Amino acid sequence: MMQERMGTICLLVAGCSTLLLISVLLFMVLESWPVWSAVSPLAFILGTDWNPLAEPLQLGIGTMILSTLWTALGALLLAVPLGLCCAIFLAEFAPQWMANILRPVLNLLTGIPSVVYGFLGATVLVKFFEINFAMASGESLFCASLVLTIMVLPYIISTSESALRAIPPEYRQVSLALGVSKPYLTLRVLLPLAKRGLLGAIILSFGRAAGETMAVLMLAGNTMVLPTSWFSKGEPLPALIALELGTSEVGSLHYQGLFAAGLVLLLFVLGMNLLLALFRRDRRSGVS
Amino acid sequence: MLLRRLLDTLWLIAFWSAGLLLLLVLISILGYLVYRGHSVINLEFLLASPKGLPLGAEGGILPAIKGTLCLVLLAVAAAILPALATAVYLAEYARQEGIRQVINTTVQCMAGLPSIVTGLFCYALFVVRLGFGISLLAGGLALGMMVFPVIVVTARDALLAVNNHYRMVGLSLGVSRWYLLIRILLPQAAAGILGGILLAMGYAAGATAPIMVTAAAIATPSAGNLWEPVMALPYHLYILFSQQVSLDKAYGTALVLVSLLLILNIIAMWLRHRNGR
User: Fold this and answer.
1) Every domain of chain B and the residues it spans
2) Distance between CA A48 and CA B210 in Å, rounded?
3) Predicted-complex ipTM score
4) Which residue of chain A is at minimal alpha-carbon distance from B108?
C-alpha cells in the first residue's frame, strides 16, 4: 500500500518546502509588523538615520540600502566583464586540458567559505590599501566589492558558460564557413544569441552579492554614515543584521526593525530569483 | 584588415588572461593560507582547547572542530530525508508541469536565500519562539534549511542523469515504480547523491552567518549537547580576527577549515564525475 503512495508522499514533502519558504516570508512580515505601523514603509526605506535606542527612536535603513547597492553593483561592475571573458574562454577557446583544470578550480573557489574570503580580504587587501594609499583604515565598500567579485565569479562563469554552450552549433558552422574570425563570431554572433542566459547569470550573482554577509561585515568598515562614493565606508544590510541581532532586546522596536530590514533584503533577493525563474521559463518556451 | 586582426589578437589575449587569472586567484589564496598558517599547525593546535588571555591566543581548536562536526551532521540529518523526497518527486513522479515548476522555483529561491535571512528566521523561530535558546539544535536546523536546496538539486540531477533505458526496461517488465526506484535508480545515482551530500556538508561547515546568531559561542567546555551553544571553526576564525585575539591562530584556523572543505569538495567532485559517466 505504502509503495503505491510513494509519489503522493514525495509530493507532500516537496510541497512542504514551498510552505517553508512562504512561512519564512510570513514570519518576517509578522515579526516586523509593529515597525510598519510606527514608521511608514517609505520613511523606513528612505530614512538615513538608524538609532533604535534613542528617544524618539529613528528607524531608517536608507544608508544600509545604499551601501548594499554600492558593494553589490560594484562587484558586478568588476565581475561581469571578467566573468564573461572567462565563460567565453571556457566555452569557445580553452583547449580541453585547460578546461579540465579550470572547471574544478571554479568548484573549489565556490567551496571556500565566505568568512575565509572576508578574513583574507581584511588581512591582505585592507593592509594593502592602508600601506599604499596612506589611509588610516583601509576598509571600504570598494574592498568589499573586490572580495565579492571573486566570490560571485564562479556563479557568473558557470551560468554564462552553459548559456553559451546551449547555442545550436549551426550558428558557429555558418559563421566559420563565411570566413569570419573566431573572436568576431563569439562577440557578434554568440554573445547576442546568449543574451537572455547571460542576463540571468548577472541577476543571479547580483542576488548573491547583495545577500552575502561575512565578507561585507569584515570589509565594509561598519559605519553608519551615508556613503558618498565607492571608496567610503558603509554598513550593508546583512552586516547590520548580523551585528545587532544579538544585542537587541526581543520584542523591542529595535528587534522588529532588524526583521523589517531582513524583510526588505529578503523581498529584494526573492524578487531577483523570481525574475530569473521568469527568464528561464521564457527561454524554454522560446526554444520549443 | 590589419586592424581586425589586431583586435582579434587582443580579444584572444583577454580571454586567455581571464582564464589564467582565475587559476592564479585560487593558487594565491591557497598558497598564502599555507604560507601564513602552516607554522601554527601542530598536534597541540588540533587537539587542545583554546587557552590564554584573551581566550584563543594560545592552545588549540579542538572544541571548534568538534562543534563544526556536530553542526554539519545535525544539518545533514535534518535535511536529507525531505531533500531526497523532493528530489525523487522532481525527477521521477512529477507529472503536472505546473507543480513541478512551482517546486523547482521554490528550491531555487531557497538556494538564493541570503544566509543571514535564514539565520534571522531561525533565530526568531527556534531560539526565541520555541525557546531552544542559542544552541546546537537551533544552529543545526538553520544549517539544515540552508543545505536543503543543495541536496535537492544535486540528487535531482543525479537521478535525471540515470540512463532512461533502465526506466523503460523496468516498466516494460511490469516492475512497480517504487521497486524500480529503490533497486535500480537510487543505486545507479548513489555516487552522485553522495557527492551532493558531501557538497552540502562542506557548505554547512563553512557557513558563518546563520550560526553566528543561532548557535555559536566564543568558548564552551563541551561540544555535543543539543541544548548548549557550540564553538564552530568559521565563527572561531571570525572571533580570532575581529577581536584581534591572534592573527597567527586565525591563519591556522583558516587553513584547517579550508583544507577540510577542499578535501570534502574534491571527493564530492570525484563522486559526481563518476556518476556523470
Assistant:
1) 2-37, 45-276
2) 27
3) 0.90
4) A273
Residue A284 pLDDT grade (very low, low, confident, very high; cuts 50, 70, 90): low
CB B142 within 8 A of CB B126: yes
CA distances from B198 to B16, B189, B255, B268 (A): 32, 14, 19, 6
Alpha-carbon gap: B206 to the closest alpha carbon of chain A (Å): 5
Reply yes or no on whether the pLDDT at B221 is more than 70. no
Regarding beta strands A58-59 and A50-51, do their DSSP bridges make them parallel or antiparallel, or are they unpaired? Answer: antiparallel
Identify whether the C-beta of residue A125 lies closer than 8 Å to the C-beta of residue A147.
yes
- Written out in words, the top-level CATH class of the domain with range A23-287 is mainly alpha
| pLDDT confidence band for A287 (50 / 70 / 90) | very low
Inspect the interface and report whether the beta carbons of B120 and A259 lie closer than 8 Å.
yes
CB contacts of B212 in chain A (<8 Å) are 242
B-chain residues near A153 (CB < 8 A): 22
Reported as half-sphere exposure (CB side, CA atoms, 13 A), residue A136 has a value of: 3
Domain extents in chain A? 23-287
Interchain pair B19, A90: CB under 8 A: yes
Give the chain A residue whose CA is nearest to the CA of B178.
Answer: A3
Candidates A108, A126, A244: best to mutate against B (most CBs of B within 10 A) is A108
Q: Which CATH number fits domain B45-276: 3.40.47.10, 1.10.3720.10, 2.30.38.10, 3.20.20.20?
A: 1.10.3720.10
Residue A136 has pLDDT above 80, yes or no: no
Cell numbers found for residue B152: 535537492
Nearest-by-Cβ selection for A112 from B14, B208, B261: B261
Q: Which residues pair with A58 in a beta bridge?
A: A51
Q: Using alpha carbons only, how large is chain B's radius of gyration in Å?
A: 23
Verify whether the Cβ–Cβ distance A111 to B202 is below 8 Å.
yes
Q: Which residues of B175-184 are buried (b: 16+ CB within 10 A; e: fewer)?
A: eebeebbeeb
**Confidence class for position B98, pLDDT limits 50, 70, 90:** confident
Chosen for mutation from A10, A19, A155 (greatest number of chain B CBs closer than 10 Å) is A10
